[in-house]
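Morning, I've got a small favour to ask if you have a moment. I've been staring at a protein lately and its backbone has me curious. You're getting the sequence in one-letter code plus the fold written as tokens. I've dropped the whole record in just underneath, so have a look:
=====
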Amino acid sequence: MSAAEDGKFIKNNTITKEEFMAQFEDVSVEITVRARYCWQKGNGPFLRFGKESLASFNYGVPWLNDPEGVVGEYGDIFWFCKKSAFGYPYKPEFKTGKVYRLRVRPGRVRVRPNYRNFYLEEVLETDVDLSGDGTIYANALEKYYKDTETNAQEISVILGKDVDLGKSASGKPYSINHCVRSFNVIRYAGSGKACMIVGLLEIPYDNRNFSSNLNLKLKAGNVIRITARKRISGDMTEVYILDKLLEADVSDDELKRLHEEVLTPGKWHIDGEDDFDVKDGEATGIILWDPSDEHTEVGVSLICDPDNLKSAARATEHFTKILRDKAAFEQAVYDAVVNDLVDEDGMIPTWEDEEEGEVRLTRDEFRKRLGIIDIGLSPDGSGMVLVSLDEMFTDHAYNVGICADGTYEANGLIG
């Protein structure tokens, strides 16, 4: 069976050049793509097929609204070439970020729903200018405002860093450039309410709809009054897109006092434990996992509530559940580690010998040497656990993710 009939795209020399070429349609089409990743000098050579090399670059089509279109959202462009004695060894040369118009043969096999492969026949145009294409810009706007409230609302915030877009590049027509600034206090104009939150302000800029923002200058620490559109997502962070700047330096003593309170280190009390230090939206402390053993210290980080950066009440609820049944918590965490590292024979190969993998432990032997190093929790109950491996993998530890639904995920070695 040829590669084209195999139902799987093959890009290595386990097949012949003819079989590789058979994976592409006989009829060519014209496409316009943006180069994402290209070969650079210093990288290894391309795969060899006899005296020829199989070159490629990875493309993207960020301006498409239809990911199921003929081009797909992203993929690879292939061609065969020979190394030359002078200059770039794998012509034609493509550069990351440039837009190209090409004649190509589409791949017969679709790697993934939005991923397409093509074979290059001819470069029709290099550094294509898409700035005059109104459809592309309309698509970019639609993507940028997706999952965003239609109507803007008036708010006042204090930004953590200055904004000066005077020297910023105006961006590409297929995307909306924007800078992001964090804030930790907000006043909602409709209710007059001032409160602490985890917030971000996006400031879009380009040569079209947002050209006026290129002249925008905002000072960190000042209260700015704006209209903004809120993003709709499951994230706990409040994200707004700037609509209009109404005032750049508002007199609002209450909001400024709240801002200073957020920045002032504080304490968070958990019954039965030493007070945790609160700073930068996080409550951190150290507990004894085994109160009778001073060598069982565990670092704990609790992300503060998204609507009150001096409180870690929501994350504390999840933390106290762990403390109430440490044995069950350990079992779930250690199961995730063991199940990820165990081999098909039910053993766990470690790095403790000169020959890596020569020392093999049973599940029970391995589990007895594990320990909890750090626990981090978010208000929704998600987080991470850092597990000590007792030097079974040199100085590496193991990262276990905690999902909001209470399940655990193995995230691999760390350190």
Summary: The chain has six helices and 24 strands.
